[in-house]
Amino acid sequence: MTVTKQESGPEGSDDEDDMPGAGAAAYTPSPRRLERERHRRARARRATAIAALSTLVTGVVLYFVVVSAPGWPRTKETFFNGEYAREALPKVLEGLWLNVRLLLVCGVAVLVLGMLIAVARTLRGPVFFPLRALAAAYTDFFRGLPLIINLMIVVLGVPALRLQGVTVDPVWLGGTALTLTYSAYVAEVFRAGIESVHPSQRAAARSLGLSNRQALRYVVLPQAVRRQVPPLLNDLVSLQKDTGLVSIGGAVDAVRAADIIVGRSLNYTPYIVAGLVFVALTIPMTRFTDWVTARMDRRRAQGGTT
Amino acid sequence: MSDAPLLRMESVRKTFGDSVVLRDVDLDVAPHTVTALIGASGSGKSTLLRCANLLEDVDDGAIWLDGEEITDPRVDQDAVRRRIGVVFQAYNLFPHMTVLENVTLAPRRVHGLPRAEAEEHARELLERLGLGGRAGEYPDRLSGGQQQRVAIVRALAVRPRLLLLDEITAALDPELVGEVLDVVRDLKGDGMTMVLATHEMGFAREVADQVCFLDAGVVLERGTAEQVFADPQQERTQRFLRRIVKAGRL
C-alpha cells in the first residue's frame, strides 16, 4: 500500500512541474526503483507472515496453559457462564446508563472547576494570595488522596452528619467525590497548558493595551486549552471508568447491577460482563483521543503552532 | 527638532540580577522623527524598548510620553501601552487567530470599536501593506515577511502615537528583509514617530533622523545618521562600525 502512495506522489507532480519540452516524455520508473519496490514488498510480506505465525503460536500456547490449568473447568463455570452472562447483560446495560449520565455531568463540572482552579493558581498580586494558596492546597490534597477513600468519606461520611437539606443520594454524593478528585487532575492539566504558552504571547497582548485578564482570556487560555485536548480526553476516559466506583455507596450502576446478581448466584460471570461493557464504552473515546492527538501532531509537524 | 519630545528618557537604569543592562540612559525622541538604536547584541537596545513600553519596570530614572511621566507607579499602564505600538523580532502573532482577528483584537477589546468598523480599518491597513488577500489566513500559512507585516498592521491598528520596532528584520531570510523595510520607509513618510533597534546599518543610515550607539547599557554616542556613521567620535563606535563594514553589512 505504501508503495502505491510513493509512486503516485512524485509522478503526478513531475508531469505538472516539468518545463515544457524537457519533460514532454512521460515518466517511467527506472529499473533501480522497480527493484527497490520489489524488495520492499517482499520484506513487507515476510513481516506479515512472521507476525501472523507468532500470534498464532502465542494464542495456542496461552489457550493450552489456561485450559490445562487444574482449576480451569471450575473457573470456566464461575467466570464464563453463558447463561448468567445472558441474564446479567440487560441489567448491566441498564446500570451503565447511570455511568454515562454521571460521566456527562461530572465531565462538565470537572472541566469548569478545573479551569477555575488553574486560573486561580496563575493570578498574580498580593490580593489573590489566599485564593492562590487555597487552589494549590486543593490540588495537592485531592491529587494525593486515593479516589476510593475520597468516595467513602463523602458517600458514607456526609449522610452520617444528618445535615438538613443535604442529599444522602449515593449517586449525587459519588458524583461529588469524583468531581472533587478529577478537578484536581484537570486543573493541573490546564495549568501546564497555561504555562506552556510562551511569555512573548502575553507580552504581545499586553503591548497592544490588553489588560492582564484580557490577555489571559483572548490569547493565553485559547492556546492552552487547544494544546491540552489530548491529556484532557485522557482524563475523561479515566473518569468514565471510575464512575463504576459509585457502586460502593449502593448506587445501582453497571458494577452494582453485576454485584447484585453475583450476590444471588455466587457466579462471577456478571463482573466479566460489566468489565467488557466498560471496555466497549472506553474504546471509542480512546480512539477519538488518539485521532485528535495525531491530527494535532500532524499540524505541528507542518509548521503550525496548533 | 525644536518640538517638545514625544518620548523622553532621563537617567534610566535597569538591572537583571547583578548585570546592569541600562545605565543612566537619556533619550529624547521628537514627534515625527525616527530614532535608530544600534550596537552589539546585549548592548541594551531591546531592554530600552521594553522599558519604554512598560513591559519592564525601570529601576531608576524616569520616562515621559507626551509630557506625562509613565514610570509613575500611579499611572494606568494599560492606558500607556494603548498609545504605543510594538513590533517584535519574532512577530509574536497569535497563532490561534486569523490575520484579521489578530489585527482587530485590540481595537475591539481594548478600544471598544464595533466589529464592522474595526474590520474595515484593518482591511484598509492590510491592503496598504500588500496583505489584502490574507485576512482570513492563519499566521502559520504566511511567510516570515508577511507575518512581520501583519505584526506591523496589528501595532498600527490601534493608531499609536509612537511605534517601537525591536529588530524586526533579524529573524527574516535576507530576501524578505526588503519588503518589511519598505513598510517602515512608508511609515516614516506618513510622519509616524518610531524608535527602532536594528542591525541593518544601511537602513538606519537612510531613515534615521537620530542614531544612538549603545554599548554595555550606555548611550556612548548620538547624533544625526551622518555624524555617527561618517564621523564617529568614540573609539568603540569606530571599532563597532569597522566590524560591521568588514562583515559587509554597511
TrEMBL record, chain A:
Does this UniProt record's set of keywords contain Cytoplasm? no
Which CDD domains does this chain map to? TM_PBP2
What the entry lists under Gene3D superfamilies is as follows: MetI-like
Q: Which UniProt keywords apply?
A: Amino-acid transport, Cell membrane, Membrane, Transmembrane, Transmembrane helix, Transport
Q: Which residues form the signal peptide?
A: none
Please give the start and end residues of each transmembrane region. Answer: 47-66, 100-120, 141-161, 268-289
Q: Which PROSITE patterns match?
A: ABC_TM1
- Looking at the record, the residues that make up the ABC transmembrane type-1 domain are 96-289
Q: Where in the cell is it found?
A: Cell membrane
Q: Name one GO biological process term.
A: amino acid transport
Give the GO cellular component terms, alphabetically. Answer: ATP-binding cassette (ABC) transporter complex
At the top level of its lineage, which domain of life is listed?
Bacteria
Q: Which GO terms describe its molecular function?
A: transmembrane transporter activity
Q: What is the protein's name according to its record?
A: ABC transporter permease
Native source organism of the sequence: Streptomyces humidus
UniProtKB/TrEMBL annotation, chain B:
Q: What is the topology of this protein in the membrane according to its UniProt annotation?
A: Peripheral membrane protein
Family matches, as Pfam families: ABC_tran (PF00005)
Residues covered by the ABC transporter domain: 7-241
Which CDD domains does the annotation name? ABC_HisP_GlnQ (cd03262)
Subcellular localization: Cell membrane
> Which Gene3D superfamilies is this protein grouped with?
P-loop containing nucleotide triphosphate hydrolases
Q: Which GO terms describe its cellular component?
A: plasma membrane
Matches recorded under SUPFAM superfamilies: P-loop containing nucleoside triphosphate hydrolases
The UniProt keyword set, sorted, is: Amino-acid transport, ATP-binding, Cell membrane, Membrane, Nucleotide-binding, Transport
Gene Ontology MF: a single term: ATP hydrolysis activity
PANTHER family assigned: AMINO ACID IMPORT ATP-BINDING PROTEIN, GLUTAMATE_ASPARTATE IMPORT ATP-BINDING PROTEIN GLTL
Family per record: Belongs to the ABC transporter superfamily.
- What protein name is recorded for this chain? Peptide ABC transporter ATP-binding protein
Q: What organism is this sequence from?
A: Streptomyces humidus
